[in-house]
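Deviations from the work plan: none for this task. Representative record:
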Amino acid sequence: MKIRVLGSAAGGGFPQWNCGCANCREGRRPGGRAHPRTQESVAVSSDDKSWFLINASPEIRAQLEDNELAARAPRHTPIAGILLTNGDLDHCLGLLSLRESQPLVIWATDAVRALCSRLTAALAGEGMSMSFGWAVCPRDGDSALLLYRAADERLYAQKLIRSRLTAAKVVSMPSRAERLAMRSQLG
Ligand SMILES: [Zn+2]
């Protein structure tokens, strides 16, 4: 079995964007003794061809480049599934970067699944639909094929819903005077 550590820093990464402590400053210094690290994520493979991600960090796009995890053909990914260990944002936000019409198979507890479903529903309510379909084991099946099929069907269903949506309305921005009037009304 092969294990790749894609990132090993805590949430926020290292150096952290809003920290100028001695460690973070050393991490930013070219040739410094502290090395910058991306947020924690691990990839596991038993055959070097398909990989399982343990958590999807916000830095997932960069973490999947430049190694065995990169795509080898159009609409291809060696990622066979993603295991979410919990609902932390730094473990789940990467899912939003893995969209682009891709069925994703996610392994998670029902609580994490419910949390991610609420997130996608809330975004859809704001007119931001996710361009990926996802399946969760064991709810959608217990074999790789069944799970992939479920994710693919969900992706297709979302595309159907999107194609029936009416075009967004363009609203004009309030003028400066109108904004000031609104602000004074709000107190
Ligand atoms: Zn720091």
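The chain has six helices and six strands.
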